[in-house]
Specification:
alpha/beta, Rossmann fold, 333 residues, binds magnesium ion, 7-stranded parallel β-sheet, binds guanosine-5'-triphosphate, 2 domains, 7 strands, 15 helices
């Protein structure tokens, strides 16, 4: 597949789509080409605000992204949406349904909407999502929205590749604390209590309950106060407030001029550096794990050692030492 890098940099959407397909491909020959492509686009990445939009199924994430994305475009921004592949989400929705939900945005010349295959992991973040973000940045998109269903690991993954984490939440009067897993409060930078057009009183109640819950919460971004907004993805209420919060957040992170990359040494720059280091360690762990279990020495010893552990004739620590020595020997030869 021939990828024309200057065309991507000039904003050619068909070439961008083709490049993403190649990046997401699992064919070994594509992987080599993908790495070369990433090397070339890397200097052109980073000039954007990367926003994770998370929330339970049906909270209104897609509707929100449609309205909010359109608003960003009206403000002169170029918006790329990397959306969950609904076929793999627990709601079992359909891609078609989601496309119609974001139809105005998808049709806009300043927007790029891409449902990404989740590659076996729930929630739409796959092992290539980070690199897809770089590609859309290189193509000139300066607001990146990553939609993930709020399920376990995908939330953590999404937080590890974005700057600002927005939780879209339903106004479940009374059970805010049960409704939201504690972990998500720990990674959110802002909470949007959605559907306030249906019942304004309960949305406002939710907001104040959340605010008191957050009082005892240490924000993931030190020195940042997690904002709670009551609004509506349908009517657009609360979106101006959200824009103001994001802009305040960027200031807080030392990222006022978003036509450039975050300045070296700014909080946002440091966060992105830490994300890359974390990612490298994840890759190391992945790679080691895979080569450990693929090692012929390990494979031949494993069943017998498992037996011995089960019948109590061998300690787990001793089994580990034997296996690890055998692995190292196998790796050397
Ligand atoms: N009244 C009202 N309805 C809304 C609002 N936002 C979303 N909805 C409706 O809620 C339903 C779910 O919205 P989606 O945007 O698909 O929610 P989602 O979080 O993307 O759902 P999944 O992708 O399935 O996880 C749809 O029927 C929307 O029309 C809102 O602000 N007000
Ligand atoms: Mg959705």
């Amino acid at each position: 597949m021939k990828i024309d890098v200057p065309a991507i940099l000039a904003g050619d959407r068909r070439m961008l789509a083709r490049a993403i397909t190649m990046i997401e491909s699992t064919r070994p020959e594509d992987e080599t080409e993908a790495d070369a492509l990433l090397q070339q686009v890397l200097p052109h990445t980073g000039r954007s605000v990367r926003i994770a939009v998370s929330g339970s199924p049906g909270a209104g994430k897609s509707t929100f992204i449609e309205t909010f994305g359109t608003k960003l475009i009206q403000g002169g921004r170029k918006v790329a949406v990397l959306a969950v592949d609904p076929t793999s989400s627990i709601t079992g929705g359909s891609i078609l349904g989601d496309k119609t939900r974001m139809s105005a945005l998808a049709a806009h010349s300043s927007a790029f909407v891409r449902p990404s295959p989740s590659g076996g992991s729930l929630g739409g973040v796959n092992r290539r999502t980070r690199e897809v973000i770089w590609l859309v940045e290189a193509a000139g998109f300066d607001r990146i929205i990553l939609e993930t269903v709020g399920v376990g690991q995908s939330e953590i993954d999404a937080a590890g590749m974005t700057d600002f984490y927005l939780l879209v939440q339903l106004p479940n009067a009374g059970d805010e604390l049960q409704g939201i897993k504690k972990g998500i409060l720990e990674i959110a930078d802002c909470i949007f209590v959605n559907k306030s057009d249906l019942d304004r009183a309960s949305a406002l109640r939710s907001r104040s309950e959340l605010e008191s819950a957050l009082h005892y919460q240490r924000p993931r971004t030190s020195g940042w106060h997690i904002e709670v907004i009551a609004g509506s993805a349908l009517s657009g209420e609360g979106l101006d407030d959200l824009l103001a919060v994001i802009s305040k957040f960027c200031e807080h992170q030392g990222y006022s001029n978003q036509d450039e990359k975050p300045p070296t040494g700014s909080l946002l720059h440091l966060r992105r550096c830490a994300q890359l280091t974390d990612w490298m360690h994840d890759r190391i762990k992945d790679g080691l794990l895979r080569s450990f279990y693929a090692n012929p020495n390990v494979q031949s010893m494993l069943p017998e050692l498992e037996n011995q552990i089960s019948n109590g004739s061998l300690l787990v620590t001793d089994a580990f030492k034997k296996l690890f020595d055998a692995f190292l020997q196998g790796a050397r030869s």
